[in-house]
């Protein structure tokens, strides 16, 4: 994967945006909520348009987020990256040379500390921090782990995107099409 430096990653929530993304300059598309029955066709079409597809494995309807489910995503669906809140999932996908993004919810200090120690054990390729609008948390997560950070969740304005980049985020993930061409 190319550099994610100051990159806005579109998060696909509504299928009506899919065609637009296929013809965009974006290299990566994140499928946040999909049905397992649709996923292979969507990934195949995206790959034909030279797009990399990351899937939030915990949110694929009809898929169990265990090692067999991940094996299916990797071998049969041929996703390029997997996002999950589960450390075991990220460890598994990394062993299969697929990009692993650990989604971390910064709810309070205890949750943050717990998630950061999981990051140290699992060593994901990226950490997606939610909400991505808390600049000091983005900085802290990167400083404490040394792992590149993606800011996600509650990114609503151009200023939110800029602030995330200024505070160490390598990329921003957003489902807001108005923000997809920033960065």
Structure description:
With 183 residues, the protein is an alpha/beta fold. The chain has one domain: Aldolase class I (TIM Barrel, Alpha-Beta Barrel), CATH 3.20.20. 39% of the residues lie in helices and 25% in strands. The chain is built from seven helices and ten strands. The strands form two sheets. Strands 1-2-4-6-7-8-9-10 form an eight-stranded parallel β-barrel, surrounded by five helices. A two-stranded parallel sheet has the order 3-5. α5 links the parallel β7 (99-105) and β8 (126-130). α3 (67-77) packs across α4 and α4 runs parallel beside α5. It is globular. One of its GO terms (molecular function) is transcription antitermination factor activity, RNA binding. Regulates expression of the glpD operon. In the presence of glycerol 3-phosphate (G3P) causes antitermination of transcription of glpD at the inverted repeat of the leader region to enhance its transcription. Binds and stabilizes glpD leader mRNA. Pfam families: G3P_antiterm. Keywords: Glycerol metabolism, RNA-binding, Transcription, Transcription regulation.
Could you give a quick summary of the protein structure above?
It comes from Ornithinibacillus halotolerans. The protein has 183 residues and is α/β, with parallel strands linked by helices. Helices cover 39% and strands 25% of the residues.
Number of helix segments?
7
Largest sheet: 8 strands, parallel, barrel
Helix content: 25-40%
Tell the overall outline: globular
Strand content bin: 15-25%
The CATH class label is Alpha Beta
């Amino acid at each position: 994967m190319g550099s994610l430096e100051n990159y806005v990653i579109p998060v696909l929530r509504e299928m009506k945006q899919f065609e637009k993304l296929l013809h965009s300059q974006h290299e990566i598309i994140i499928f946040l909520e999909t049905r397992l029955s649709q996923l292979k066709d969507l990934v195949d079409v995206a790959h034909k348009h030279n797009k990399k597809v990351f899937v939030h494995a915990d949110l694929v309807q009809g898929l169990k987020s265990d090692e067999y489910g991940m094996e299916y995503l990797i071998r049969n669906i041929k996703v390029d990256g997997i996002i999950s809140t589960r450390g075991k999932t990220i460890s598994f996908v990394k062993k299969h040379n697929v990009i692993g993004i650990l989604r971390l919810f910064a709810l309070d200090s205890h949750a943050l500390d717990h998630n950061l120690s999981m990051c140290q054990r699992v060593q994901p390729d990226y950490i997606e921090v939610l909400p991505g609008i808390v600049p000091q948390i983005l900085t802290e997560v990167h400083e404490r782990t040394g792992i590149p950070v993606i800011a996600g969740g509650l990114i609503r304005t151009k200023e939110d995107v800029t602030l995330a980049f200024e505070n160490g985020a390598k990329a921003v993930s957003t489902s807001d099409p108005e923000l997809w061409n920033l960065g």
